[in-house]
Amino acid sequence: MEDRRRDPSLAADLAALAGAIERWAADLALTEEPARFIAALEAGAPPTAPV
Amino acid sequence: MTDWTIESLAADIRARRISAAEATDACLARIERLDPTLRAFISVDAEGARRAAKERDAELGAGRLRGPLHGVPLAYKDLCFLRGLPTSCGTRTKEYFIAERDCTAASRLAAAGAITLGKLNMAELALGAFGDNPHHGHVQNPWSVGRCAGGSSSGSGAAVAAGLALGALGTDTGGSIRMPAACCGIVGLKPTYGRVSRAGVMALSWSNDHVGPMTRTVRDAALLLRVMAGPDPDDATSSPRPVPDYLQGIARDLGGLRVGVPENYYFEGVDRAIVEAVEEVARQLARLGATRVPFRVPDPQPLVDVTGLITRAESAAIHARIAKERPHELGPVVRARLEVGFHISAHDYLQALRLRARMAREFVRRVFADVDVLVAPTVPEPAPPLVEVTGAPVGAVIARMGRFSRLTRPFNGLGLPALSLPCGFSRDGLPLGLQIAGRPFDEPTVLRVGHVYEQTAGWFTRRPALA
Question: S-S: B215 plus which of B62, B142, B179, B220, CB 3.0-4.6 Å?
């Protein structure tokens, strides 16, 4: 696949994605890590659900 | 046979009112008659299905019942690996995906007695919201040929709606179970992330993929989930939680349940008929004893951005080989969607994964303090005409996919269980879809609300008028 990074629409897509990440990650805690996603699901289950 | 449900057919087979062979033959005859138009199947394994049905009948004759699906014909999205059958993943390459073993979900269904009819059509590489496919034919909506069946599990939606199979497996990375369920007027459940093993199913995004059932009734979805769910050593992300009996208590009344109807995001830009149908659902649930709670969800747009970036990066990594070595084999929309992923930085990808963890934790804490389930439309418009989503320029198709899936995608990023079921029909006779989402691993409540509503509303009794 040819490198199309200079394609204006692709460049715009990439810039939008990177911009969104930069905006939302500005106040991420140092302790935040990807595996806490699974932990959030397990912790958020209702008490009545079987564990 | 179009009135069969998985439960009713399994009961009839157990009681010897019908044999597994007769049920399988009826499905195969219907496939032969209708599938040249619907294009729901990529491969039909008539010989294997008839052989398995004979075996199930012989087992029953000898007093051996495999499980609750004994003799029930099912079909699988063509990204589920099943030994002996090709797995194209919707590409033009017949054997695009080969796993070391049968996919866990299908092998559990077979162990419970299910019969495999074949493999179902889908959007190429599961990268499509409308279910069109340039290699295997565009799946047609059984309610209106010429309209899309919804994607990416389009064959699964059409096959179940048309009565070609009693149930099907789909996968959902951004709505790919729920969108075809909504377009085809059936039930589709995206379970909690990790509830059903992904082992043996071709990935699109390891972080956002979910495997789930597509059926005619909520009870059937609960039954298939009960069989498929549970820990699997072959999927490190599968949850160790034991699996409850999802049918137990499914008909319990809704008294005391708090149903949230989001005031933001979920009704913006949505077709008027769908808005009115979901509003009527909320009123109906209140009449059934639930308490309607107006509330605002945390803005889903950041989550949609973050989840989209993760999916793009992971799908480009997974399909790098075909995209780089044989791009001419892919349709232009799929090629364009994969290409973005090649240029996402490792930094942005990791930040997105960290953000997702925080967003999921905050959403669960804030939203489920006030509500037990939330209800919303599944898709913003009834099934669009295929010509509109196949004939437009690539950029326009991708933009329309983004709009079409904007109501389902947040629940992939959040990993929450989300059920789609019919909540009415448009003036043109097209199904309208309702989405019910709940706490992590609270499929019992989500299914209960869906079942109680379904039985009161009765939409599930309607069938498409197929020749």
Answer: B220
